[in-house]
Amino acid sequence: MLDAVVVGAGPNGLTAAVELARRGFSVALFEARDTVGGGARTEELTLPGFRHDPCSAAHPLGISSPAFRALPLERYGLEWLHPALPMAHPFPDGTAAVLARSVAETAASFGPRDAGTYRRLVAPFLSKWDTLARDFMSLPLTALPRDPVTLARFGLVGLPPSSWLMRRFRDERARTLFAGLVAHVMAPLDGFATGAVGLIFALAAHARGWPVARGGSQSISDALAAYLTDLGGSVHTDYEVKRLDDLPPARAYVFDTSPTALARIAGFGSHYAGYRYGPGVFKIDYALDGPVPWTAPEARSAGTVQIGASTAEIGTALRAASREGRAPDRPFLITVQPSVADPTRAPAGRQVFWAYGHVPSGWTGDLTDAIERQLERFAPGFRDRVLARATAGPPELVAHNANYVGGDIACGAVSGLQLLLRPRPSLFPYHTPHPAVFICSSATPPGPGVHGMSGHNAAKAVWRRLRQP
Known about the structure:
Shape: globular
Number of strands: 14
Radius of gyration: 21 Å
């Protein structure tokens, strides 16, 4: 009998398997698709030689992850590559605010009236980032916080809605960039604890950057899988699990799946019936014949570029997708241009690029024209650079990754108490109705992102059970 079986080879499932194998437990990992990766894959979606990340591409939480930093992933091929700027947020007048590694450069891009405010906002936390990241990404606490004072201070700033935090800024540039940071998790700007979301992304940029993985996000997953194999674990792909009886006998079962799928497989009935999924996204991967022709010079050297002309425009787009059940006319876009830092992603002189906007859950329309109209506002002539495109709305995203229920790449709404207490209000979120079954997906704290911390935290709960006499 195995000690543990893990279902789902996304970053969290892989991390959970590695953490258990590191502690001497026998582990087998089962994945429905033909390769490991989940939200961290790389594929040729458009033309030969153009390597695209179907989901996550920039990794501010990956490079800052306490779980990843404790593992020898570089030995297995993972290399982080940094663009000159982590992120830029261009405006229609051709200027841009930036999220730079330097706090001073970031603050200066906001203008003189908000530069000091921004420096004072991040100063109490930046020097303590590693400890804060560990404590924050372990909530609800799986161990005593290493710096409870800083964590409490961060909570006072971050738990109110981001709209409250943005009132500290006097001008639109800082407010708009910060609104865009919050929108990365598809959260409404007036939602509980959304201030913490924006602040975490900003601090991560200053502390460790927003890198891409050389060769694509698949290299993160491949490194985890290779390390797992070296530790004695086994990986089984093309293995779809429909019920617990499909799996070999084990002392514990760990699921990197949506709560809905887990309930169906394990026979938990309506246990997760109250779990809410958020809006979907419509994503386009592009093969380009050269760089994106951004009007703002700063955007040309940034790994990530946010597209939203103002706080009001971003808020309108988020409300349309999450509350009004319609696709926005001017979607807020998150775009990533990996080729700025990693020229291996495309043939010489060419680039890969992706963009997505928010749409209602399960939406079946085509947002291509709206997305490209937005891009043309800030990069005139963009369409002339397109060699090929691959589009994916909610139905295609679900087909690619079953955890993206309704096209929700966060595997659950990141709003209200569910931002922190997921998949149910509990101090033991990784436990399920069955004492030998656990959940470790992005539907558990700390939530979405390629960081492996949900798997890391769940593994703690599992090994405590396995060590019981």
